[in-house]
Amino acid sequence: MELDELKQMSVADLRIKERETREEIFRLRVKLRTNQLDNPANYRKSRRELARILTLISAQRSG
Predict the structure, then answer these.
(1) Least crowded by CB within 10 Å, which of 16, 25, 53, 59?
(2) Whole-angstrom Cα distance, residue 1 to residue 4?
(3) Which domains does the chain have, with CATH numbers?
(4) Cβ neighbours of residue 14 closer than 8 Å, sequence gap 6 or more
(5) What is the pTM of this model?
(6) Which helix (H) or strand (E) holds 33?
(7) Distance between CA 56 and CA 42 in Å, rounded?
């Protein structure tokens, strides 16, 4: 998801997206450890997306 799309979301929507991303990271981590993951870059991409989401939640709370 693009950063501009994330910036337009409310905190409640970002929390939902956070939960979905955390679940996706868990599934990707299991696949990575069992050598079933086709593209390891997807794991890094999901982790970075989660970091962006958490940053936006923090920024919206404080300001």
Answers:
(1) 59
(2) 9
(3) 3-62 (1.10.287)
(4) 6, 53, 56, 57, 60
(5) 0.90
(6) helix 11-33
(7) 21
Q: State how far the alpha carbon of 25 is from the alpha carbons of 1, 4, 8, in Å.
A: 15, 22, 23
Task: Summarize pLDDT for 11-21 with one digit per residue, the tens.
Answer: 999 999 999 99
- Using the structure block, give the residue that is written with the tokens 């794991």: 43
For residue 55, give both structure tokens: 């940053």
The string of pLDDT tens digits covering residues 36-53 is 999 999 999 999 999 999
- CA angle (34 as vertex; 42, 23 as ends), nearest 5: 50
Pair of tokens at residue 24 = 């996706």
Rg (alpha carbons) of the chain, rounded to whole number: 13
